[in-house]
Design a protein that fits this description.
binds MU-OXO-diiron
Length: about 160
């Protein structure tokens, strides 16, 4: 049987993942307002991915016989000043999510709750990918700086991104 603490952390992760979706939508709005529709598309797809992550936790809890707990969260930050800041915050956010996933995994390992340990392996890999994506885009945005053709090139590239599970 998983402990109450482990169930609590799994439930909290539903909230963190839905919060991530809101955070990325706020970033999409920032980009959209600046006519950077490709960057906006990237963050809208990212938000869809986060909702998919939230539902994975929801379904896992239901599958192990628990009732998923749906709770609210604070408004995401919206006062962004630049694309560089947006991607720096995105990377920091993904690093925080990785830390949260690792904490749940360590607890599940301590409790020898193998279903949770197994379930979280997908997220461990996913977080490596999430951090790498945000880190690479942060580097590219930094390299581009105020170079308008460079920003527009990146915008066109990011317009191609689609949500995939
Ligand atoms: Fe659900 Fe971007 O981590």
């Amino acid at each position: 049987m998983p402990s109450k603490e482990l169930i609590k952390k799994l439930n909290e992760q539903i909230k963190h993942e839905f919060f991530s979706a809101h955070y990325y939508l706020a970033m999409a709005a920032f980009c959209s307002q600046r006519s950077l529709d490709g960057f906006a598309n990237f963050f809208i797809a990212q938000a869809a991915e986060e909702r998919f992550h939230a539902m994975k936790f929801f379904n896992f809890l239901a599958d192990i016989g628990e009732t998923p707990q749906i709770t609210g969260f604070d408004d995401p930050r919206t006062d962004f000043s630049s694309l560089e800041e947006v991607f720096r915050l995105s990377l920091e956010h993904e690093q925080l999510v990785s830390k949260l996933i690792h904490q749940i995994l360590e607890l599940a390992q301590e409790e020898k709750h193998h279903p949770t340990v197994n379930f979280l392996q997908w997220f461990v890999e996913e977080q490596v990918e999430e951090e790498a994506t945000m880190g690479k885009l942060l580097d590219e945005v930094k390299l581009t700086g105020d170079n308008t053709p460079g920003v527009l090139f990146l915008d066109r590239e990011l317009a191609k991104r689609e949500f995939s599970e």
